[in-house]
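Workshop exercise sheet. Pairs work together: one partner reads the sequence aloud, the other fills in the structure field after running the prediction. Swap roles for the next sheet.
Pair: D.N. / O.F.
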Amino acid sequence: MTQHQAGEPNAENRPEPGHFRLLAPFYEHFIQPKAPDRILAHLGLPQPGGVVLDAGGGTGRVAQFFAGKAAAVVVADQTFAMLREARKKEGLTGICALTEEMPFRNEGFCCIIMVDALHHVADQEATIRELWRLLKPGGRIIIEEPDIRRFEVKLLALIEKLVLMRSRFLSPGQVTALFNFPGASSRVEVAGWTAWIIIEKTA
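Structure field:
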């Protein structure tokens, strides 16, 4: 599945984001883990023979709910401190990797999730291409993001900018437009200030 051993960095040319390195031990005290019922429903788990990827998955606060529902659950993140927390959770494998260039073979995952992470990556277009490369035909990608069309999220984006976080929020339509690949079908669901972009690889 992977060209690297668990924890071997392929992100050494980019420093770890300082905010997440410092917050890692306390992250889940501020952002409580919650069962991702909507994501589970869209992914159609359990899939006993499938492998799930949580791209930019940090501490595994979402991925932990997939353990036991797939053959393996992989959390990819560029911050070692976040991955240390993920590895404390049963059933998760942590890999240090940038979302723009992950050390996995083509079409190696039946399901890919990315929760509250796309607005943090350095190259969103490259990240989307990489997620598409890794997804098996018939598989699904679920991207959960704050809906930047909402006033509350615009305020959040401003705060993150003021504290010098690398954030670029895209609207659901802008995310969908990045999946301009043959065989890609998409839909969007919104509840409150959260949007889910559901992508299926039909071919």
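Discussion prompt: The longest strand covers residues 135-146. What would you look at next?
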